[in-house]
Amino acid sequence: MMGWLPVAMLAVPLFGALALVISPQALRPALRAYGLILSGITLALAALLLATFDYARPAQMQFEVDFPWIPGLGLRFHLGVDGISLPLIALTALLTFLCFGYLSWAGGRASGQLMTARPRALVFTLLVLEVGMIGTFLALDLLLFFVFFEIVLVPMYFLIGIWGGEGRRAASIKFILYTLLGSVVMLLGLLLVWAQTGTLDVEALSAAHGSGMARSIQILAFVAIGVGLAVKTPMWPLHTWLPDAHTEAPTVGSVLLAGVLLKMGTYGFARIAIPILPEGAAAVAPWLGAFAVVGIVYGALACLAQRDLKRMIAYSSVGHMGFVLLGFATLTPTGINGALFANIAHGLITGLLFFLAGAVKERYHTADMPSLGGGMLATLPRLGSVLTFASIASLGLPGLAGFWGEMLALLGAFQPANGLPRGLFLTYMVIGGLGAVLTAAYFLVMLSRVTHGRPLRVTPVEAVDDRLVHETPDERPVVPLDSPQEGTATATLTAAPDTRDTRDTDDIKCHELLAWTPLVALILLFGLWPGLLLSLTTPAVQALLGAVS
């Protein structure tokens, strides 16, 4: 019953993308609304999925579709939804719709200029990306999971490479090389599982709890699959593609990359690696925890060293995903629930942060924090307030969504699963707690640079003095907006007709308000009422951990 819903969620963006190829001229006048309408239909289907889901049975697969795909190889087109995948599907549909809305509602403003540069290709790319993202969370066949997992790479490569910043080509190549190499290793692990069990059905493999596979085979398969998932997550030290990709990607690319694509890697641990390979998970868990806590501390220290706002937010994802991996490494209901909660919280909060970083760059024409001049709460109070809200949500303030996932992951490390070295995981808990303190530190440093203090004006001086044409933005004079300008050389520069402040001084605009409000509301909702998510994931996690209990 209702098995058509998952198929429809894939069919709407897929056929919408195909229509752009088949009849591009007919759709050209309506391109700005086309993607918004299709992603809106997909979001409506996700809402129907939420409304009709049987919350009394979140551990069981619902809305299943299962029919032969490639009969000769025993492959099946098998889709389904449970308490683990449902929140991620809804998050994907929401963020994709908000990205299309952000582009469409912006009109002729800078944030909507992407829709004037190859608009048909951009809409096509985002629709194909949505197919791959939603399909990954629906797939219940290992090879089908791999196909959807890989589909997202090509559109994201073009999204960065065509519509990104100045270093987009290098960043897009680095992204595709890292993720493709990780995927090759993951495919070898999936094929090893197939060779040992004779099936690729995720439900059957999870129910078997690794029976039929020797411990050594499970360890080898877990490492291979885990490496592929860890690249996408990203786990330290396989994270180096992420800062460049985020920095150069357009705003909507960064939102989807942080909000959804990173979750595909962590979701793979919950759906495939841990339940199918329980002995491999138990053997590798201490190492996974070690990489996780190193990533937490490394990400925080890297954030403290950043000048670029987008790059700082990108490195923060390395630390936040470290908490997710630590939760998985504990192999406990508490830790894995924390990991799944942190997945959703990170998608909402970091998606909002990248929207905000794009808005800051649009107004100030730079994302370099020292060059912004500070004082945003005085000059753009609404934008500064939302940036402050997103930052304190990301650093884990109690009452907001970012708190629960990290707290539960650390609590899981306090009492890991039987058979895991408790002393080692207590050490991980302490290091993770230190990382949480450092997270607060780098966000507070960022806010002190950007939102607090006296507002300063970055003065473009190229038109005033030819000798300064080659100066970088960091070398330009910075003048307090309320400071006297008479009697100084700097005053001569700032008084010249061509040296007016070129920032866009508009505060939050209508299209930004529409795109950001749902994210702010959900961050508050899940922060104040975490049981909404935990009631979904807890039974599913307990069923998943039948493999290692």
Key terms:
single chain; 549 residues; mainly alpha; 2 domains; two-stranded antiparallel ribbon; 23 helices; 70% helix
Helix coverage percent: 55-70%
Question: How many domains make up the 3D coordinates?
Answer: 2
Number of helices: 23
Task: List low-confidence stretches.
Answer: 108-112, 458-504
Write a brief structural summary.
The protein is built from 23 helices and 4 strands.
Description:
By secondary structure, the protein is mainly α. It folds into 2 domains: 4-452 and 504-547, no CATH class; 460-499, no CATH class. Helices cover 70% and strands 4% of the residues. A two-stranded antiparallel ribbon has the order 1-2. Mean pLDDT is 83; it is low at 108-112 and 458-504.
Please outline the helices and strands.
Blueprint: H1 4-22, H2 24-27, H3 31-52, E1 62-70, E2 75-81, H4 85-105, H5 119-138, H6 142-151, H7 153-163, H8 168-197, H9 202-208, H10 215-232, H11 241-248, H12 251-276, H13 278-304, H14 309-330, H15 333-364, H16 369-372, H17 376-379, H18 381-394, H19 401-414, H20 422-450, E3 456-458, E4 478-480, H21 489-495, H22 510-528, H23 531-544
Helix pairs in contact: 1-3, 1-5, 3-4, 3-5, 4-5, 4-12, 4-15, 4-22, 5-6, 5-7, 6-8, 7-8, 8-10, 8-11, 9-12, 10-12, 10-13, 11-14, 12-14, 12-15, 13-14, 13-20, 14-15, 14-19, 14-20, 15-18, 15-19, 15-22, 15-23, 18-20, 19-20, 19-22
